[in-house]
Structures are given as C-alpha cells and as structure tokens.
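By convention, each integer encodes one residue's backbone shape. The lines below illustrate.
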Amino acid sequence: MDTITEHVDGVLNITMNRLARKNALTAAMYQTMADAFFDAENDPAVRVVLIRAVGDTFSAGNDIEDFMKAPPAKQDAPVFQFLRRISSAQKPVVGGAVGLVRRCSSIATCST
C-alpha cells in the first residue's frame, strides 16, 4: 500500500509509504488521504490527524509520470479533494518529517 491509514489513541495516522519513489504522490494516494480526512472529520474518536512518511524524505511532491497520464482536470479530482479537505479540516493536522514536526507557523524539532 502506498498510503497507510490507522487510528491509534485518538490519532489518525496517514503514512506515505512509497520509499522507492521518495513518497511522490499519485492520484490514488491523494484519494486515500482525502477519504481519510473525510472519515476523520466524521469520527468523534479522532482528535488529531498526523501525516508522516517512511524513509528519510517526507515527499518529493507529485509523481509527474502519474499526473501526466491523467492530469487533474475536474474539481472532483483526487488532488483537489485532498486540498479542500486538508484546508478545511476542523481537527488539528500535524505533518511529521525526519526530525521535524510542523503545525501552522509553529515548528518543533525532535531527536529520534
């Protein structure tokens, strides 16, 4: 699975798991993450969403090959669904990268 979602103690973990491609995002990954955000908003047991990645690269960005095959042309394209849901999330969203956790303008480093 390129994207793994799991609920643990009130945290919805979304993990990008595409190490060979430096976690470059595909349309399928955007859809999985968009669906996870929808589920989190409707699940009172979820208190926070954590987006993280395997390996030493958080994400190389969009997988250009995947996007060239099927460019997002409509508003219901997975990338746009994800962007709408993450930008309107009512629960805290935290992005975790190697040695770094960021939430809005707050930055905290941590050792692993």
In short: Confidence is low (pLDDT under 50) at residues 102-112. The chain is about 30% helix and 30% strand. Residues 27-41 form the longest helix (15 residues). Residues 3-109 form a domain with the 2-enoyl-CoA Hydratase; Chain A, domain 1 fold (CATH 3.90.226.10).
